[in-house]
Amino acid sequence: MSNLDILNSKKKSFFLPIGGIGEIGGNNYLYSFKGEQIIVDAGISFADDSLPGVDITIPDPYIFLNPSIKPKAMILTHAHEDHVGGLEYYFDKIDFPIYCNQFTYAYIKHKFKRIPDFEKKFQIIKSYQEISFKNFSFQLIPTTHSIPDPAGIFFKTTDGNIYHTGDWKIDKNPVTGDPFDYDNFKILKDETIDLLIGDSTNAGVKEISRSESELDPSFDRLFESLTGRIIVTCFSSNIARLKTVISNAIKHKKKIFVVGRSIKRAITTAIEENLIDNFEVLNEKLFAEYNRDNVILIATGSQGEKNSALSKIANNTHNHIKLSSKDNIIFSSKEIPGNEKAISYLKNSFSYLGLNIISEEDDFVHVSGHPGINEIKEFYQYVKPLSLIPMHGEYLHLKKHIKIAHDLKINKTLLLLSGDLCELDLNQKNHKLIDQFIIKKLPVIQSSIVEDMNFLTERGKMLNNGIVSVNLILNKQLNILKSELHTKGFPFDFDKEFIQDQIKESLLNKILFMKNELNENTLRDILDDIVKKTFSKNFSLKPELLIHLSVI
Fold first, then answer.
1. 180 DSSP 8-state letter
2. Is residue 189 within 8 Å of 385, Cβ to Cβ?
3. 370 counts as catalytic
4. What is the pLDDT of residue 150?
5. Looking at beta carbons, which pairs linking 182-191 to residues 24 or more positions away fall under 8 Å?
6. pTM, 2 dp
7. Predicted local confidence at residue 329, as pLDDT
8. For the residues 123-135, what does the mean pLDDT come to?
9. Quick one: 5-207+368-451 is in which CATH superfamily?
């Protein structure tokens, strides 16, 4: 990793995306204003097929949790997991305040209740409340998104002003929270926005993102017309969607079941914050006892996460939830890029069970929480940023966002990726890339960060090449008394005696003239090398090896 000391410069300012640029999710950003650092968001990402057995990852937080720098604070823009989900995995290492609004705190506090005095790290602030440091200040600017109380961040620095949009859209009639109002952004219009760092998720979408409230009649119609059980899956932190589903379920006198810890936590928070009316959630053990035409099941796992309740239901391995060809499933979420294969597998599994599958390609069951091209143009024409760095999106989204800026004559732009260190020039707007950090995506397994990535190499080898176990017993004269060879997950049958004979012959030839130089450790190394070469020569495979050697 390159030296981070440059971030302590008293003369320069920097922007370092740790995660969230060039990808969907994992939002984590570092700003440094003349030696004062601040972190924005702490998100997770969905893992891809390169990480077998792993559902989520986080950008390596040790790039800011290290002795080289001392952040003043962290700011959370809103409570979606791709912006706050990583915080719980390194919360104990944070020794600076975490600023957020009331709903964001209400949503995430459940993650920390077992930690004594956890609330002391949080500073709950109101919209437009100015928090000042020596070289900069910031304010949360309320916007609209698919969760209550999302905010952008307005930074005032000694050199100029920055607006970090967070996730946003123009929703004039949201299901939760206040409507999008340009009066909220008058502070940006009245000030010069030297740099806007903006959401690119839908920068290639021509259609305007529709209001969350427009989904209500659609779910009303579906709940009225569909027969059989109805399963709805969406992102657990999409409170507006949950409210729409629950209110229509109650309207149609459906019995409501909820599976998945995160979605239960989201509903509990929404009830506590008076965003959803309290209602009865039935015990999933009673699922089979109710008339199938009167049942709604709300579940997490819409992205095909292997360990989710929805995957267990799809594979017919859930302890209590069993479905049949008379049932329906509604996918009320978009496909996050990289998850297409897992989602396709999930849908195929439900199709195999005979379910009626409804997704946004089939009916109006989802709206995006991000602005399309026309919304971005409308907003930028209002706040008039003088330069742009796109964030929140894959490379293609970032490029399209740059094009939107150029169409609006915002010609000072810079395309970065996560790990790119940018020196900010808020005077001349000539921001420049000056260094690149390799930032690892750390897997999270059983609620813990796994820093040693060697296990993934082993898993990959086992997945693609299988496991070979060789057990060998020799006497002190180095005569082979017993040999065994076992395989697991090996792709085809083979003559094990033939391969064992090759291994024994190679070993005996190797040690014939080395007897005085050998001990158990060197013998094991020699055997390991021989087994590797034997399997590579015969099968062109490199299986994971388990070598057991004893000299008696």
1. P
2. no
3. yes
4. 96
5. 182/382, 184/127, 184/141, 184/142, 184/143, 185/141, 185/379, 185/382, 185/383, 187/128, 187/139, 187/141, 187/154, 188/141, 188/154, 188/163, 188/383, 189/382, 189/383, 189/384, 191/154, 191/156, 191/161
6. 0.84
7. 97
8. 97
9. Ribonuclease Z/Hydroxyacylglutathione hydrolase-like (3.60.15.10)
Q: What is the pLDDT, as a whole number, of residue 455?
A: 66
Cα(532)–Cα(542) distance, rounded to whole angstroms? 7
Q: What is the C-alpha separation between 313 and 321, in angstroms, rounded?
A: 6
What is the tens place of the pLDDT at every residue in 172-201?
999 988 999 999 999 999 999 999 999 999
Residue pLDDT, tens place only, 491-547: 778 888 888 888 888 888 887 767 667 777 888 888 888 888 888 888 888 888 888
Task: Identify the CA nearest to 109 among candidates 273, 327, 289.
Answer: 273
199 is catalytic: yes
State the residue for tokens 């959370």: 76
Looking at CATH, the fold of the domain delimited by 455-551 is given as Ubiquitin-like (UB roll) (3.10.20)
Query: What CATH class does 212-358 carry?
Result: alpha beta
Which candidate in 80, 83, 370, 401 is catalytic?
370
Q: Residue 374, exposed/middle/buried by CB under 10 A (0-12, 13-18, 19+)?
A: middle
Range 328-346 average pLDDT: 89
Catalytic residue among 199, 327, 420, 425: 199
- Do the domains 455-551 and 212-358 match in fold? no
